[in-house]
Fold these 2 entries.
Entry 1:
Amino acid sequence: MAEESLHPSPLLPNFARADLSFERGEGPWLFTDRGERYLDFGAGIAVNALGHAHPHLVKALADQAQKVWHVSNLYRIPEGEKLAQRLVDATFADTAFFCNSGAEANEAAIKMARKYHAVNGQPERFRIITVEGAFHGRTLATLAAGGQQKYLEGFGPKAEGFDQVPYGDHEALKAAITPETAAIMVEPIQGEGGVRSVPPQCLRGLRQLCDEHGMLLIFDEIQTGVGRSGKFFAHERAGVTPDIMTVAKGIGGGFPLGVCLATREAGKGMTAGTHGTTFGGNPLAMAVGNAVLDVVLEEGFLQRVERISLVLKQRLAELKDRHPSVIEDIRGEGLLLGVRTRVPNVEFAAAARDEHLLLVPAGDNVVRLLPPLTITEAEVAEAFDRLDRACARIEAAKKTGAAA
Ligand SMILES: *Cc1c(COP(=O)(O)O)cnc(C)c1O
């Protein structure tokens, strides 16, 4: 394409990037190198949970940077022991493994589930049931777990050991269980798949099935966790807990950080030498993770997320009423909200970007709104105005198109 040849890039062309670059951020705002201001309702794909340049996070990172950055996991890392203890205290888990990304946390979860059955004397139990529309990452195993053909294409044989069932089909799920099944792995709300919530009774049903069949239940809360859904973790609303849970994105507030949490029982096979990571859980990452929890676990923080979520949902419902030819449906929980559009979702996201509002497309023709959890009512009102103008722009273009 002409534009590409004008701006040859040394980067691998595996991302379709918008021609925008930001040099500074503050709360929910991003500033381009041309001095333009964008309202960031994408938050680096649910990563910048506390917005940009949050003073507490900046200080935690800078303070730690003066002390020690990295020591490897050959030694104890007190900041990591502290963060693990806080996660254990606030969840079902007894133990935590730190790594650098979501996919890496899921790899740990998959290995842990297989190892659990192996040390129980059932090494033949290595298969994991996943759900259609899932997204678990881009490594070879997590791609196989996600099962999306478009991502698997051309990368050789799909990794063995994953059985996918249609979304919401409890009977198909039951039928997929065999003596080789080790675990069921689901996102309580599918993020990339189009902001599709698994109903609480289904999460409870999965727990029951796992208990009946001696399988482990794995929740992928990489996108839904750390307050994004309005709860600390999205599965809390169902009143059941998993055996293993993966967390990334928001937990680092922008610093690469992933965690695989587990009960002592589920993690019992992962003894010294069975798994590892060079960078995972280093002091810099641990300092930032602790700082994120300082804010998210503060009294009243999650209640505030729930309140602002209601405000945003009401505004989106109003937007749907005002622009029924553009917006079909509003979905999601907390500040993981989706708008299903009647025009191609990427067109909708582009129209919003023209109004200097950043959104993130997802599957099922949905556009995600993932603002920082610290968003205010005034900023929600600002986003509404921009969305309203974007919808009007799309309607106007439709009319012109129809007339032409
Ligand atoms: C983003 C995401 C992943 C992958 O995380 P990476 O850090 O990109 O490897 C896995 N599962 C879910 C649910 C995600 O949203």
Note: The chain has two domains: 55-296, 300-403.
Entry 2:
Amino acid sequence: MSQPVQQRILKTAIPGPESAKLHHRRTQAFSASFGITLPVFIESADRGILVDVDGNHLIDLASGIAVTSVGAAHPKVVEAVKNQAERFTHTCLMVTQYEPAVQVAERLNTLTPGDFDKRTGLFSTGAEAIENVVKISRTYTGRDAIIVLSHAYHGRTLLTMTMTAKNAPYKEGFGPFAPEVYRVPSPYPYRWNGNPENIAQEAFDQLVDQITTQIGAHNVAAIIIEPIQGEGGFIVPPPGYLAKVAEFARENGIVFVADEIQAGLGRTGDLFAVNHEGVVPDLITTAKALAGGLPLSAVTGRAEIMDAVPAGGLGGTYSGNPIACAAAVAALDVIVEEDLPGKAQRIEAIARPRLEALGGDGSVIGEVRGRGAMLAMEFVKPGTKIPDAAAAKQVADHANSNGVLTLTAGTYGNVIRLLPPLVMGEDLLNEGLDVIEAGVRTLA
Ligand SMILES: *Cc1c(COP(=O)(O)O)cnc(C)c1O
């Protein structure tokens, strides 16, 4: 299949009649418990464009939630998948082995921060990587407690939804939750109740106070933090916070984990979001953008921690599937060779000033924030900080029905987040931003 024309083309209303027919079939066949941002059906996709079954070319500002950083059909990824699928699709890494799994581990050990001996374990989904981080940290430390932040998102399995902060839709009705998960305040600069000059220290003091008085640092196995909170609304911690927490973890024998499942692998303008702060985690989780669209996740970090679980304790039938690993080798090479962190910086240079120009005093946009190609606008009632989820939804709906796929996020549902593929062309990006601007103007 040739690459779709990199142009927004609207042939029908969005969704069009063919999508509507398929969507009707979906409602008759598929569980109604799954959400859908835009009920179009996709026929082909790559770089900045999704082509639907009605022939509409949509601008992609979602990347399938930060997955298709290299595009949805990068020739190198497609070639690697084809080659691997023709040779074999599966053997199970716990039964017999294959080189692509070793190649992925070698690349991640090299690319992740930290000048020490590292090992990698491969799994299938982000939630599974987080589950395994907990198993590894508990075995290594002999402790139970896991510390997470408010506004955190770590997945939808029992343990990871427990670690996720937001109730509906992620937790409502799904309890009882897993034990020994403790939550401390996220240093959310825009909504911090305290001294705006001193957020990193105040949030850190609260973390230390809660751990010391309520749990005991000697009972804590791991502190797990997204270096930029994703689903929570692209919350960037104030400078210095992550370094203080990493230092506290080190002093207390606690494993410090960066969940880079959304922010990692070039998205923020550096290979890893922790690199912006020079923070080196003990363990780092990756998934979403790792395998160019195939399901693969990883835990990478200090060899002595990664080797703590006795052989046989980690694994999974599909962990490190060979097709996903072949795709990941290709995707990681593209991220480095095509300088996707540099492309993310370029996206920020174009998009941030345009988004900031929409804000200002008395605006519906309370804050523009994020890093690289992970940018967000938080919508509020003008002149206040009262979250306005309806405004965010109106702008997203405007963009979606005009052929610009746009996601919302945030604990209060009042954030529009932009996650374009890092390989998106600049004209297309600007056109997508034109439509979002028009959407914001509909609020006036
Ligand atoms: C998406 C996400 C997860 C969960 O990944 P899944 O593949 O959906 O299980 C975990 N952590 C973060 C930060 C994420 O963005």
Note: The chain has 13 helices and 15 strands.
